[in-house]
Design a protein that fits this description.
The protein is 36% helix and 14% strand. It is built from 10 helices and 10 strands.
Length: 279
């Protein structure tokens, strides 16, 4: 048994979906039977999991924890020829903040909550519990690797792994001007009767937004519907007094996009909720 195959089986047993890497730290290319997706497997890697053929193909979508697949004849040859082992963080409910240079590492140490750290040849991998959208170059020298991405296995690292913080989720969201439905405060009718809005109490409003973020983040299915219903609930409580700000809306959009929703869908859901409430 090759060393890479042994490592792959050990990682798979611990719940990490694995795949072999060839030289250049890239996955093995599609097998001949799957050229141009002729097998009808996983187009554009939108769905995680191995394709129906036995070969390691479709990049990180081929990552698996199934020892039968890992030990299959075609895979064993790939492990023998592999230059390294990779894993699919999102498939294990993890996110890797890939820090590619000393400046990026310094930024992380000053900005991000402490978590498990794995040293790389050029920087560090910071591992958090929780999956999110993967995006490269979220800032200089920083990539996010989670859903539909792969990271090279470089050891278990040091430190206790902590929950994925909002500061990391927010890195993949565009500037508020591109995700908010309107500039400045949400344009809604004046509060009937006038007077100071009771929702302006910071604790009350922040608690409501935090609960909405948690509801979206916890959705395991029907994410579209959950996002819409959550937006509707927030607007039904806070939409008529004008207390919602760009920052509040951006927090909700950030949570939705971390679950895979596009900025366009977030805007549509918010607009539909406004329309439903007559705002």
């Amino acid at each position: 048994m090759s060393a890479h195959l042994h490592t792959a089986l050990s990682l798979a047993a611990s719940g990490l979906p694995v795949l072999p890497l060839r030289k250049g730290k890239v996955p093995f290319g599609n097998c001949p039977a799957c050229a141009k997706n002729s097998c009808g497997g996983r187009p554009n890697m939108k769905t995680p999991g191995p394709c129906t053929c036995p070969h390691p193909c479709h990049g990180c979508a081929a990552a698996t924890t199934d020892p039968g697949v890992i030990n299959a004849t075609a895979w064993v040859r790939a492990w023998h020829d592999a230059a390294g082992v990779a894993y699919h963080p999102g498939g294990a409910g993890l996110t890797v903040v890939d820090l590619d240079n000393a400046e990026a590492v310094a930024w992380a140490r000053a900005t991000l909550p402490a978590t498990r750290i794995v040293r790389t040849t050029r920087g560090e991998h910071w591992l958090y519990q929780g999956a999110m959208q993967s995006t490269n170059a979220v800032r200089p020298g920083v990539d996010i690797k989670s859903a539909m991405a792969y990271a090279r296995w470089l050891g278990r690292g040091t430190g206790a792994m902590t929950a994925l913080p909002m500061v990391v989720r927010a890195l993949v969201v565009k500037e508020p001007s591109t995700v908010r439905p309107a500039p400045h405060a949400i344009p809604v009718p004046a509060r009937a009767g006038g007077g100071e809005c009771c929702h302006r109490t910071p604790t009350y409003l922040d608690r409501g937004i935090a609960m909405a973020e948690q509801r979206i983040t916890a959705a395991s299915s029907a994410v579209h519907a959950t996002v819409y219903r959550t937006f509707l609930a927030v607007l039904s409580t806070h939409g008529r007094c004008g207390c919602l700000t760009d920052a509040h809306v951006a927090r909700l959009f950030t949570a939705a996009q971390a679950k895979g929703e596009s900025a366009r869908h977030c805007t549509d859901a918010w607009t539909n909720a406004l329309t439903r409430l007559g705002l």
